[in-house]
Amino acid sequence: xxxxxxxxxxxxxxxxxxxxxxxxxxxxxxxxxxxxxxxxxxxxxxxxxxxxxxxxxxxxxxxxxxxxxxxxxxxxxxxxxxxxxxxxxxxxxxxxxxxxxxxxxxxxxxxxxxxxxxxxxxxxxxxxxxxxxxxxxxxxxxxxxxxxxxxxxxxxxxxxxxxxxxxxxxxxxxxxxxxxxxxxxxxxxxxxxxxxxx
Length: 198
Ligand SMILES: [Zn+2]
Prior knowledge:
Blueprint: E1 17-21, E2 27-31, E3 40-44, E4 47-50, H1 51-66, E5 75-77, E6 82-85, E7 97-98, E8 104-109, E9 112-117, E10 126-129, H2 160-195
Parallel strand pairs: 7-10
Antiparallel strand pairs: 1-2, 2-10, 3-9, 4-6, 5-6, 8-9
The structure holds zinc ion.
């Protein structure tokens, strides 16, 4: 087997976190012990890049996504000039899954991004946060978080209303189309019957 090129620093670790296969998606982060609300669990690290570079990477990501590839978002705003690209091997926190009822959140602390506990977390629980995706391309990111309130898509909480409305509108439109098709079909049948010589 080929040795992997190690270009970055060692993977970020935290006494609160261990990695394990996740029922939600891929590898997830799990609490090694009980975590109190407000604890900074693990730092979300990455490459510090300029806004221009960030825009360029985001555009490339969108193009990948339009081509049917994974278009995960790992870009965080650090300040007016710099963003953080967390899509690097050493950023262990990138493995944290999204949840519709997350137990963690991302917190901006003096130029650093942390994954912090939103509430008390039990030992062994999977750590999750709201990815905060915009609702615009809501269909691109299915959610399998398995929580009772799961929206079915990875979209930031304050935009759920818009997605729910869109889902309803689509269901209504599908119903209308199906009805119209049924009507056309039965009309067609009637016409055929009329045409038949008696
Ligand atoms: Zn969900």
